[in-house]
Amino acid sequence: MLLSSRVALVTGGAGRLGRVIAATLQREGASVAVVDKDSQAAKAVTGELGGGDRPAITAIGGDVSDTGEVARVVGEATAQLGQVDVLVNCAGIVPSRPVVEVEVEEWDRVFAVNLRGTMLMCQAMAREWIARDVKGAIVNISSGAGRSARAGGAHYSGSKAALNMLTEVLAIELGPHAIRVNAVAPGLILDDVVTEESEARHPYINLMLRGTPLGRTGAPADIAEAVAFLASERSSWTTGSIFDITGGSHCGRTHMPTTEDLS
Ligand SMILES: NC(=O)c1ccc[n+]([C@@H]2O[C@H](COP(=O)([O-])OP(=O)(O)OC[C@H]3O[C@@H](n4cnc5c(N)ncnc54)[C@H](O)[C@@H]3O)[C@@H](O)[C@H]2O)c1
Asked: How far does Cα 52 stand from its chain's mean position?
């Protein structure tokens, strides 16, 4: 097992990706705090994953964009499970709106959750880890959208681009304390993997499929396995990496033909 006796805190742990990340870290031996703004949904996740001889799992409600909530969440996780040494920042919101239509409240909320929330969690954990000499690992969930622009994504893509830079800056600042900070940048992840274009589906999904060399959408487990690796000692010389897990869709003009017959 990759994470025996470790204690992980997963924000957004009740969501599509977060709950599978929580289950995967637990499968690898970690006790897990499932932190989410939606405390009922977090409890449903821990209800499914708790019991038997599995490592402990606990649900904690909290808003990562709020400094006081972050301090409370970290304190409760530590009190219930012991010293946290793995932090996965998966809480995020994904609105899509052209700049000419966006309201400033929505703009600010995206950055407050996706960027400030991640920073506050990293700051709280890093302060504790430095004081207690804990060689922790942080994995931030970014997005392919952080490096690839699309209409409607100014705030979301902008927040994830900044998250990538936050990851690299923190890798530099925390490396001397043996704290590693990495990110995973997923492509399109759906609960049910889609392999074929269909008129019944949203055009976004069809176009993503056409631009994905591996020919399918991602599953939450594709991301969770990478998170487990980056959280573990198997990646002990990896920090400041932004790990693209996209089926290849991030590679560029993936669905263009060759130019052989262009003339
Ligand atoms: N699904 C995808 O295709 C995809 C692709 C790339 C990146 N991502 C990223 O992965 C992460 C998870 O996405 P998902 O698809 O699981 O979304 P989701 O909406 O299913 O899950 C997000 C979770 O975060 C929680 N949350 C929202 N705001 C919060 C806050 N302020 N404090 C605490 N919790 C909060 C929500 O309650 C929800 O449970 C996000 O950061 C998203 O940007 C997703």
From this structure: 28
pLDDT in tens, 61-101: 999 999 999 999 999 999 999 999 999 999 999 999 999 99
The verdict on pTM exceeding 0.85 is: yes
At a CB cut-off of 8 Å and minimum separation 6, what does 144 contact?
185, 186, 187, 244, 246, 249, 250
- Distance between Cα 139 and ligand 1 center (Å): 14
Q: Which atom of ligand 1 is nearest to the CA of 64?
A: 32
- The answer to whether residue 262 sits within a structural domain is no
Active-site option among 156, 158, 162, 163: 156
Q: What is the CATH number of the domain that holds 234?
A: 3.40.50.720
How many structural domains comprise the chain?
A: 1
CA distance 1 to 54: 13
Q: Residue 17 Cα, ligand 1 centroid: separation in angstroms?
A: 7
Task: State the closest ligand 1 atom to the C-alpha of 94, by its place in the atom list counted from 1.
Answer: 43
Catalytic residue flag (residue 156): yes
Q: Judge whether 261 lies within some domain.
A: no
